[in-house]
Amino acid sequence: MELALAFPGTGxxxxxxxxxFKVAGKRMFATYLVTDNTANIFLSxxxxxLFCKMDKRAIYPVPNKWGEKGATTFVLDSVNKELVAEALLxxxxxxxxxxxxxxxxx
Length: 106
Known about the structure:
Mean pLDDT: 91
Strand order of the largest sheet: 1-2-3-4-6-5
CATH architecture: Alpha-Beta Complex
Order of helices and strands: EEEEHEHEH
Low-confidence stretches: 101-106
Structural class: alpha+beta
Largest sheet: 6 strands, antiparallel
Number of helices: 3
Strand content: 25-35%
Distance between the termini: 23 Å
Oligomer: single chain
Shape: globular
Number of domains: 1
Helix content: 25-40%
């Protein structure tokens, strides 16, 4: 998931059995699970709907409450790299905007 680390101020941290990616001082915008080569990318619900329409078998809401809020699984063996990069950028921008709007870290 070197794509996630390409954004300014991002780093990785453990997140249960996954690797989490977050912007310093802010919340996580993606996680990666090595064992099945999937990424969960935290999109807005509107963006989630758009990405899921592209390939329902390889891009789908996380099957829990987080999925209802926009957390979206990408099966990396089945989705092209450019699409994943676009989703990561959308999630990163959402994190950066939430900081500007609220005026504080989450």
